[in-house]
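Standup notes
- DV: blocked on the single-chain target, sequence here:
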Amino acid sequence: MELPIPDKIRIGAIEYDVQMCNEKEIATVGIHTPYYSSIRLDGSINHDLMQVVFLHEIIEAINHQHELKLDHSQMSSLGSALAQVIRDLPE
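- DV (later): unblocked, structure below
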C-alpha cells in the first residue's frame, strides 16, 4: 500500500501545509517548520523515500507538539518502521 502525500494534513489541533520543493530550496530531503505549520519535502526523491521522509516529518511535528523529547535517530527509526508497516499492508 502506498501512503498518499496530501497538500494538507492535520496533526493534533494544527493543520500543516505539505509542500513539494527542490533540495536546493530546503537543503535536505524534508523539514518540519512548526512556526509556519508546514512540512516541506524534496519532490525529486523517489516515492519510497518520500513516504519515509513524510512520516519522519509527521513524527517531528508530534514530538514538538507533545514535547516527547525524542532524538533525531529515534524519529528516523520510527519513520522507517511505520513506512515499512504501511507499505506491507494489503491493498
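- Follow-up: Residues 8-87 form one domain.
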